[in-house]
């Protein structure tokens, strides 16, 4: 599953291969959990983290579905990073 994030300064980010996210202190962390049930456990893999106070919106992007919003074609997947 992929999440499309729009930040407060208008940047667009894609987080691929994640099926859940949650707040962790000042960050929103995206996880890949086993079994596809979308529940985070101790065995979940952290895929990316973004500062929560910089996020304007998060949308799930399902493959094959018509896009709910138009995103730039040049989006690059993000990984773990400190900002």
Explain what you see.
There is one protein chain. The chain is mainly β and 83 residues long. It has a single domain (2-61), classed as SH3 type barrels (Roll), CATH 2.30.30. Helix content is 0%, strand content 43%. The chain contains no helices and six strands. The strands form two sheets. It has a three-stranded antiparallel sheet, with no helix packed on it. A three-stranded antiparallel sheet has the order 3-4-5, with no helix packed on it. It is globular. The mean pLDDT is 79.
Summarize the structure.
This protein has 83 residues and is an all-beta fold. The chain is built from no helices and 6 strands. Strand 3 and strand 4 (27-32) form a beta hairpin.
Global shape: globular
Strand order of the largest sheet: 2-1-6
Largest sheet: 3 strands, antiparallel
SSE run: EEEEEE
What ranges have pLDDT less than 50 throughout 5 or more consecutive residues? none
Distance from first to last alpha carbon? 24 Å
User: What's the structural domain tally?
Assistant: 1
- Give average pLDDT, whole number: 79
Query: In CATH terms, what is the architecture?
Result: Roll
In which range does the helix fraction lie?
under 10%
Count of helical stretches = 0
**Structural category:** mainly beta
What is the CATH third-level topology name?
Answer: SH3 type barrels
Q: What is the class in the CATH system? A: Mainly Beta
Strands, total number: 6
Q: From the alpha carbons, calculate the radius of gyration and give it in angstroms.
A: 12 Å
Q: In percent, how much strand structure appears in the residues? A: 35-45%
């Amino acid at each position: 599953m992929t999440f499309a994030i729009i930040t407060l300064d208008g940047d667009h980010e894609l987080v691929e291969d994640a099926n859940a996210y949650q707040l962790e202190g000042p960050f929103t962390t995206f996880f890949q959990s086993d079994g596809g049930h979308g529940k985070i456990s101790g065995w979940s893999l952290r895929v990316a983290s973004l500062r929560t106070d910089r996020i304007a919106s998060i949308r799930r992007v399902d493959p094959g579905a018509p896009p709910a919003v138009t995103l730039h074609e040049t989006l690059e997947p993000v990984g773990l990073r400190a900002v």
